[in-house]
What we know:
The chain is of the alpha/beta class and about 280 residues long. The protein contains nine helices and twelve strands. It has two domains: about 1-35; about 40-270, TIM Barrel (Alpha-Beta Barrel), CATH 3.20.20. About 45% of the residues lie in helices and about 15% in strands. The longest helix is centred in the N-terminal third of the chain and has 31 residues, at about 5-35. It starts with a helix and ends with a helix. The model is unreliable at about 1-30 (pLDDT under 50).
Amino acid sequence: MTKMKINKINTMRITLSTLLVFWFSISYAQKTETFQWPDGNTMAVSLTWDDGRKSQVEVGTPILNQYGVKATFYVVPSAVEQALEGWKLAVNNGHEIGNHSLVHPCSGNFLWARDNALEEYTLTQMNTELQKANEKTQELLGVQPSVFAYPCGQTFVGRGINTKSYVPIISEQFTSGRTWLDEAANDPAYCDMAQLTGMEMDGKDFQEMKILIELAQKNGSWLILAGHDIGDKNAQTTEVEMLKKLLPYLTDPANKIWVATVGEISEYIKANRNL
């Protein structure tokens, strides 16, 4: 191959790369301009916690209330019963209660979940349990959950060729479903409301959270942060020190972040996008 041909090929590659960058820039600009967050905000954030653990109402909600932030708590009814008065107070203070199943079924690969292994579930069984969880939550707290978080972030029942997704059930029963341990925030103009991404905040410090927020803000995304215990000492704990730095940052008007529950933001997106 002659030097002239090599130079010509290299020139073509550079031109193609330039065109691709230009195309992505145009696409990005079009995408971010097709969806507008309210009140001039440039992104949205929801704070969510799973399971209905006692530390969430004993430690977490008093801190959230101090900053006027409403969170979404995806609960298992049996856990709520262990701190019932605290959960009733959380509801009275405007926090959202979501469904996190009746018995927290996960893959039997987790030994602690072997008695409620998703591999042994059917869609009918899952559908029934989700309805019972809603009924029990209504009985305990007087609210009917409209949002759901998949236990362990897993969306299947069965195994092998008999594996089936229960995402359609979530789509029918709830306004949204949130997964777990995801790697990106939600694009409000495109995301599947029955499979919203959730990014971990357990064990993270404020600087780590700020990086996630800034990345999501560049894309005009909806960042759903997910945790478990608050201020406890186990492996799945949202640190109080981090939370006390995060909340002022999120609620500072200068940062142009809309902070609201999953249900509120879900409804806004559904009403304001073209899908």
